[in-house]
Design a protein that fits this description.
two-stranded antiparallel ribbon, 121 residues, 4 helices, 2 strands, single chain, mainly alpha
């Protein structure tokens, strides 16, 4: 599964989570297996709508963090293994990513400021 994360981006992860919640289609009626008698089973439909699984916002966030962590390890050229896929590790790499973005923004702003000062001379 971890190798499959190389080809997935954040938008595909959101789509995957949405499809898990609402997959559509039908599935075997689970009530048939626990029907009290044959008459009750005969009145039940064979198939019911597939309602999907419960996939809450924290789980989706963790999957996105895991995806980002995998891409971070790929970026720094380190192997990403299952023991590294803990909850703390992806959160740490996300924090590092946010700090990198802030630093890039500050660098870009200082370059723009420098260019404006240079043009005014």
């Amino acid at each position: 599964m971890l190798d499959d994360l190389d080809s997935i981006d954040m938008e595909e992860m959101k789509t995957t989570c949405r499809n898990c919640r609402q997959p559509g289609g039908t599935m075997d009626n689970p009530a048939l297996a626990v029907a009290a008698d044959a008459d009750a089973a005969a009145r039940m439909p064979l198939f019911v709508a597939n309602r999907g699984v419960i996939l809450g916002c924290p789980h989706e966030k963790r999957l996105n963090l895991l995806l980002h962590c995998k891409k971070h390890f790929l970026k720094i050229q380190r192997p990403f293994t299952v023991p590294q896929a803990t909850i703390a590790n992806p959160q740490l790499t996300w924090t590092l990513h946010r700090k990198e973005e802030e630093n890039e923004d500050q660098e870009v702003n200082s370059l723009i400021k420098f260019e404006k000062e240079d043009q005014s001379r």
